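Hello again,

I reread your note about wanting to compare the complex against the isolated chains. To keep things tidy I'm splitting this into two emails, and this first one only covers the full assembly. Below are the input lines as submitted, including protein chains and any nucleic acid or small-molecule components. They are followed by the predicted structure of everything together. The single-chain runs will come separately.
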Amino acid sequence: MIQSTMLMKKAGPTSNPEVTSLEFFDQLYTVAHHAIGPRRHVVCLRAASLLIRIEFSDENLAGKLMPALRHLQVEDASTPDLTIYTWDSTATGTALPDAIWERSDMQPMGRIDGLDTERIRAAFMPRTDGFTMLDLERNIGLHNVPDANTISVHQRSYPFRTLISWVAMRHAMTFVHGAVVGREEGGVLIGGASGSGKSTSALACLNSELLYVSDDHVLLEHQRGDVYAHGLYNSAKLRHEQLLQFPNLQDFVESDPDLDDKTLFFVDEIAPQRVVKGLVVRAILVPRITGERETRIVPASPAKAMMSLAPSSLFLIPLDQGEAFRRIASFVHKLPVHEIQLGSDLQQIPHQIDTFLQGLPS
Amino acid sequence: MSDVSYRVNSPSVVGEVLDNEAVIINLTSGAYYSLNESGSAIWTLLESGSSRDGILGILRAQFTVDEAMAGRHLDHFLAVLAEEALIVESDSPAGEGAVPEQAVQEYEPPQLMKYTDMQELILLDPIHDVDEKGWPHVKP
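Full-complex prediction:
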């Protein structure tokens, strides 16, 4: 159960950021403590090397956020690297403390000027009403959901993304916006912003012999001389119109086309034997949709890989951007880079990737 | 033009040179950039704190270009970098740039390619309405 000392002093974020941010964290921690009562639901996960314990305020909230993480579930996390307390304000009838920021402090992509310190991180979740705070000294994360019954398809597909990424940075892992598929000996990292063809490529591989790590988010680290990609989420998203290209996925849709702006799947229901928790990365592929039928893989410059990976990764996660940029550059320096020119015949994509991987020097 | 020193506008700006091609991100604006070979050489020299005249001298040693043309191109390029808030004038004493140990190369004027797709994505993030306690809510 949560134990904390509640400090009620109210101050703006600019008066003394270190003290007021910590005080505000403790106010919110106390709210979480009241919200997470006897109906709480506790889950333990191993995400890469991180042991994570999550206390949900009730099973309904867990039911919304856990499907994307259920493949990482473990029995016990008695010494967690991160403990997350998450609560549904509507279901628990709990009110949030008064905000200590001004309207003008709220920046695009969830940043709040003046609230972050060396110890405390805070952000709103872009495109949702979720709010996240982390105390890096106590390894405690707080995640507020205004109403679990109206939670967005984005929150369901990558729950706690910001919290996990912040903690992963402290453990030498770096959040990267990319898909990873491959063979047991190693795979390819497919970079690119939304709409570049990452998910199309990764989901096309579910119909093949290739292994699947992620269509969208991975944690990368240098491991024994290699670059290793850890998958985080068991989810995949497509734009609604792309579903026509994947008739085999239509029975697995987990979203509501009238309410959600993307179509959501959980890949362990589609091809459980293909989903793996991670792979060594042997090359970076920069996707480009050509409009032609054929898919080809051709050499490309490291700068193309950097432009494909860095901006979209850095702007999805507030803070630590300078360090994340340097780390992404270190991955790019280490790996060969090619462009995957994506054609309309989706069956060619896994075939071309497989042939490409087998042609790489071992 | 008198000698001026610049520095990279960090921490708002991060950059990396990969195979003679620089990739730069302005973390404040969301815009990102790539530079051609001569532009990347200039960026490397700016990162090491070289002055305008120091950069010009090294450009002339590294590329087949006369001083007047290189000077005009360099001044224009520095002005563009400053306008994009990628560099700022520096009071620190200029460092000594070094001529890379490589053959003299064909010269092309330094160029900056700007990409705004992430900037557009950031601006698309729905700025929230704020309730009476100051908490934001996504506009329906």
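For quick reference: Chain A has a mean pLDDT of 89.

B.
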